[in-house]
## 1
Amino acid sequence: MINPMSPMHDQEVRRQAMLQAMQVDVWLPRQQLVNAATSRNDLLQWSSIKTNAAEPASASELSVAVATARVAVAPAAPRTDALASLRDTMASTQTEQKTTVVAGVVAEVEAGQEAAAVTAVQAEPIPRFALQLLRADNCLVLADLPTGEAFQSRDPDYQLLKEMLRAAGLTDQPDFMRQAAPITWPMLHSGNLVHEQNAAAARACVRDLLSVELQSKPAVCIWLLGQHAVRFASSTDDAALYSVQPFVEDAQLWSLPSLESILEQPLLKRDIWRSMCKERSLWQASNA
């Protein structure tokens, strides 16, 4: 016989209570039926204290209960007291079962709301960007590509970059890393891992690629040109423009506006020049 204290027993009691609350009759087999699917042993041996208590008493049981009540009660007590006591007991049992069903439904609704909240938190937007990686002497340059296409020699933003490198005392003929292939995100466009390409994964990817490049050939400074370059190469999202942050292998990160922003707002060149005069010792000392 199934243990009344087991989780399986509680689950069956709950199922029967829910069906009874919906006015659906519950029938359990007492023996194997011919030409029917095999019944579970725990249902054939079913014994539920809660269920038995909820079932209305038969006529013989009521007679025994009434006779017992007559013997136990004093002669002056009316006969209706015993019947009222039975009715109160049955009513309280049915109320308890209904309360259990309602509590179970409320618990399921709350669990569904919590699961929906967790899903909403996990559904973080996937970042989308393209970055160009170049090397100029002892510096690396990581620049945003607004269109996703690699730099071309006649592009205005690439010509601006060459001017900035000359002003910094570096070569104006930088080498394209990764065979000039941009660093794009997201990397996967199908499969089970698509939705796991969040901001943390993008940052880990970009920083790992920079670390690999530094291991191949060290650099003292990494120019970060643009919002995405600054965000995903830095260790945090709140890196300020024109700030210098430590990276790995004694390399520093220098945050700058995007080339596109500089073309649209020429006054930014003044701020970049001031920051360059302050930070250029990072790469000039190594070149000397």
## 2
Amino acid sequence: MITADHRTHVARIEAALLAGEAARSPIAASWSRSVRVHGLDPATRRAAARMSDAELARLRSAMEPTIRTAAPTLDRLFRAVGGLGTCLVLSDRDGVPVERRGNAGEDRDFAEAGLWTGTDWSEREAGTNGIGTCIAEGRAVTILRDQHFLPAHIGLSCSSAPIHDAEGQLTAVLDVSSANPGCTDAVMQLVALSVAEAARRIEADLFRAYFPQARLVFVPGLDRGAGALLAVDGDDLVIGASRAARQHFGLRGDLRRQSLPAADLLGQTGPDGLEDGERGVILRALARNQGNASAAARSLGISRATFHRKMGARN
């Protein structure tokens, strides 16, 4: 049933787009994408796009390592915010929730809004919303009530944050949503801070799980809450970097194949000598010279033949 509130909401979106607000407002820009890129119409009722149970089971299986690693943080976060009339979901990188925390007495409200496991919350399917807009813009977002695109969602307030894997790629989205009219905008801003902090904690836990034998180093000079981590092996080579660390240092690609000396990256370089820790010295010289053995030998002041002999002795 289309209510007067729904008609008012549709008229507001149409007026904003006609006035060119998409150039000035991130919310209006998302509304514009919903209409012009995804072909959605806020005046048309849409059934939520939902996976079959079998499809959801396969997706959950693929996401199982992330779900397992995130579970303790999801539980802590829900204990903190669940009393505000909220539910918590963890979605995959495409916006489909695979894990959920909620209060049984409020489940019906969220189920009716489609905020449930297996439902597609990408902007392509649901227009402007916390999960989908977070994915589309690659950043944490809070979408309050009538900032949503579809009228069916204007009873929700949602705060979402992206979660990146150990190689810096988007792997999941964490969302906390409220259907409680008494949950004010100010409260949702506090919820947003908690969601962002929890997302960074999950990223750090995923990073640790991916590099179980490595020494983890926080990037100096950055807020530890930003989650800027380096994974360093026994030869003092950086073999992994979190998304925040990659952005800070401009790192790309598979660092296990293109490792870098940690001392160089952190500005702690000093003279290397073959007297102490030959294997590490040789490997760091190779890394500094992009795998060029001749250049690495010259940097160490030894012949190429000696360099290869020492490499052979270490293999």
## 3
Amino acid sequence: MGSRMIRSVVIGCGSYTPKKAMKNAEFEEFLDTSDEWIVQRTGIEQRHIAAKGETTADLAEHAARAALENAGIGVDSIDLIILATSTPDNTFPATAVEVQHRLGMNHGAAFDTQAVCSGFVFAMTTADQYIRSGHAKRILVIGAETFSRILDWKDRTTCVLFGDGAGAVILEAGEGKGSSEDEGILTCHIRSDGSHKDKLYVDGGPSSTQTTGYLRMEGKEVFRHAVGMITDVITAAYDATGLSSEDLDWFIPHQANKRIIDASAKKLKIASQKVVITVNMHGNTSAASIPLAIDTAVKDGRVKKGDLIMLEAMGGGFTWGSVLLRW
């Protein structure tokens, strides 16, 4: 067989955003802020807000169905669902199980993964391990969030940043030669450091306060660490594959803040025309942001078969990670 190896190849993607798009100007009615201030500091122009009664599972189901349709397959051939979220419908069971049920899938397994904004990268990394070890042939990976439900709408430093949405991809076992020319996931790198908890967290939970709590963030501190952490895992991907920023067709980062994205791309010498930015339309949708950006760039024709793509995220924990893949 030589150096043939199993690769996790993307065969479909899909996304969903709630109907309501909230423009920056709407915050001016109840907060001391302005559209100009928000755009200048974050690059965000609007974000989508889930309707009353619309949950993370609802958004995830829409994105999952869109991905299945895009791949041209039915749910019968899915072995596993991994759903990244920090805003589950219930404390338990996992939101993934609810989505599994709604899709009419009563075989295989489904579970949630929790790494906040890095959730989708952690979920893709986990899926890749299942496929490469032979434990699954097809996996539905979803990132879905309703962050609007954990925001303190009186805190102008956080509530303007986040939004709701969902995105999904389907990974399938494919055969590669073990080279960087292969289709599919080439390398994954994930990290976390719990000493940074107080810089970005939610001040509630079942075991501590018996409430959901609200998102709390030290924005300057998060920004200060972000670029270094992002650089760390992207450099690790280059070291593992022998590739470089010049080889990338697309850089699809977690959409937290345009200034962080721009600073990271500059430090890594990634040309600005290779950077996919959707933060202006979606705000920070946490675990949903990367798959939302992927689906946007696939649907508008930017991402094409054979393209080399770097995914990267950093989130509360802190968590951070990268996935380098060929579309």
